[in-house]
Design goal:
RibuloseP-bd_barrel, TIM Barrel, 232 residues, alpha/beta, 8 strands, EC 5.1.3.9, NanE, Aldolase_TIM
Length: 232
């Protein structure tokens, strides 16, 4: 068992991401968010973008899962081998990439991409999948970890209000690599349920590191019960 993967067993990975136009969109802010997550007990960090990966790697001594979201195609999470190599070279210990059955923009197979990342950088690979078949195929292709990240985010899967715990359980009983529960894990109870379903580790992003969304949850809940204003 790889030491980095062993460090994540039954523990929390915090996804530190902000997007263009958002107030927190800067590598230094994400570095600080990652430091805060580490202070709170996170065992690993997931980060997006080369500058963020580099900044976090220099500040946080935890396993770092890195990715690069790029392009308008269906496959946009670390879509090509060049993206994957750049993510590893920026400092990611684990490269997260699209592990679905959809064609990759550079025409390479998932297996070829994973093998090249292993050979050229020594980094591990996490395959972000959306179905049981994709997870099984990704493990067979050499992925070191398989995640449920894209369940509900492909045209052929349904988006649930919470995490796809059924997929977590089915993957855990079908593959011989660690399963990462990720996607719509909004409460501590969800995270615990994911572990009970068989997840090796759990990635939480929005519910910890995206204040705009969290604020929206509270505002919407309060608006649904607040009395209707009346003229005085």
């Amino acid at each position: 068992m790889n030491t980095l993967i062993a460090q994540l067993r039954h523990r929390l990975v915090v996804s530190c991401q902000a997007y263009p136009g958002e107030p927190m969109r800067s590598p230094d802010t994400m570095r600080r968010v990652a430091l805060a997550a580490a202070h709170g007990g996170a065992a690993g960090i997931r980060a997006q973008g080369l500058a963020d990966i580099s900044a976090i790697r220099g500040a946080v001594d935890l396993p770092l899962i890195g990715l690069w979201k790029d392009g308008d195609d269906d496959v946009f999470i670390t879509p090509t081998l060049e993206h994957a190599l750049s993510v590893a070279r920026a400092g990611a210990h684990i490269v997260a990439l699209d592990g679905t059955a959809r064609p990759r923009p550079d025409g390479r197979t998932l297996a070829d991409t994973i093998a090249a990342v292993h050979q050229l950088t020594g980094a591990l690979v996490m395959a972000d999948c959306s179905t049981l078949a994709e997870g099984i195929d990704a493990a067979a292709a050499g992925a070191d970890l398989v995640g449920t990240t894209l369940s509900g985010y492909t045209a052929y899967t349904s988006k649930q209000p919470g995490p796809d715990l059924d997929l977590v359980a089915r993957l855990a009983s079908s593959v011989d690599v660690p399963v990462v529960a990720e996607g719509r894990i909004h409460t501590p109870a969800h995270a615990a349920q994911a572990l009970r379903a068989g997840a090796w580790t759990v990635v939480v992003g929005t519910a910890i590191t995206h204040p705009s969304t969290i604020t929206g949850w509270f505002a919407a809940a309060m608006a649904s019960v607040a009395p209707t204003p009346t003229n005085i």
